[in-house]
Design a protein that fits this description.
By secondary structure, the protein is of the alpha+beta class. 28% of the residues lie in helices and 29% in strands. It has helices at 24-38, 64-80, 93-100, 104-116, 146-150, 171-177, 216-220, 223-230, 249-254; strands spanning 2-5, 120-123, 127-130, 136-139, 157-168, 184-194, 197-207, 235-246, 262-272, 277-286, 290-293. A seven-stranded antiparallel beta sheet has the order 1-8-9-10-7-6-5. It starts with a strand and ends in a 6-residue tail after the last strand.
């Protein structure tokens, strides 16, 4: 799968309905709700529990416009906190309607959004079941640093620079970065730790002449922040390829694989606003810790 991301700036704005019929405005509301859950800020009113109701359903009077967002937030929080495990059934439409004093349409909208974002799956005649529990979302529709993507997760997150050196571009790297062979490249390997597990290995190649002054200290923080704020360059767009690969020596050396023999690799060819490619990166993810999402629109 290849995704092209373009436009001025690094945060494309979506407009109009998505392919699944849910509007971009709704998706913005849901992203905000998910972020509040990650930061522990989701509103959890003290309300009576409806008899026989599952843990996520709570009787409450919320303004109709935001009620579906509250239902969504509560269920996401219960999934992230692993109150609901993968394969568990969430409360039925009727139970949620009673618990939240909500209309059937409102409940269905919340459940549809949970399904669209990969949290649950509807099975006809059986109910709605949890697909994943506590995995970390990687959104494809944007170019963000690890720091930007994970600072609001509410998890323990850290980065370590494992290797850093200047290397000449061989034939393959010259092709990937659109430079001449032997062009000096800055090669950086960084290990990303989330909740005391090494789960991402980033292998970055930067055209050295485009990132002067990039040192180990800057690499341990946010390289994109260094490029934009210290160097005054504008990062514009990326071509992204995602594939599964068998684990290599670096994966086994740096990642806590727990017996897994494959990783998910996100390859980025990232360009400045003037069109110059300054980076090629392979971001190697432990496959049980992440899911990848995007918003698609029918042309």
């Amino acid at each position: 799968m290849t995704t092209f991301l373009s436009g001025e700036g690094r945060r494309p704005v979506c407009a109009g309905p998505t392919a699944g019929g849910i509007s971009a405005a709704d998706n913005a509301v849901l992203r905000g709700a998910e972020e509040r859950v990650r930061r522990g800020l989701a509103r959890r009113p003290r309300l009576r529990q409806t008899a026989g109701l599952g843990r996520s359903a709570r009787s409450c009077r919320i303004h109709a416009v935001n009620k579906y967002s509250q239902i969504f937030s509560d269920i996401v929080a219960d999934i992230d906190n692993q109150r609901y495990q993968q394969g568990d059934r969430i409360p039925s439409e009727t139970e949620l309607m009673q618990g939240y004093e909500a209309s059937r349409g409102t409940v269905r909208k919340a459940v549809d959004m949970l399904q669209e974002r990969g949290y649950v799956q509807k099975i006809h005649g059986k109910g709605v079941f949890v697909l994943r529990s506590g995995n970390i979302e990687f959104q494809l529709s944007g170019i963000v640093s690890f720091k930007e993507a994970h600072q609001h997760l509410g998890r323990r997150v850290s980065s370590r620079v494992a290797e850093m050196e200047t290397v000449p571009a061989d034939a393959q790297l010259a092709r990937l970065l659109d430079v001449r062979e032997k062009t000096p490249l800055l090669k950086i390997k960084r290990v990303r730790n989330i909740d005391n597990e090494n789960v991402i290995l980033d292998i970055n190649y930067f055209v050295a002449s485009l990132v002067p002054g990039l040192d180990r200290e800057a690499a341990a923080g946010s390289i994109y922040e260094f490029i934009e704020q210290r160097l005054g360059l504008n990062i514009s767009y990326a071509r992204r390829v995602i594939e599964a690969q068998a684990c290599g020596d670096d994966d086994r050396r740096y990642l806590d694989l727990n017996g897994m023999d494959h990783v998910i690799v996100v390859k980025n060819h990232t360009h400045l606003y003037d069109g110059r490619q300054f980076e090629y990166t392979e971001s190697r993810h432990r496959l049980d810790k992440f899911f990848f999402s995007d918003v698609a629109r029918r042309k």
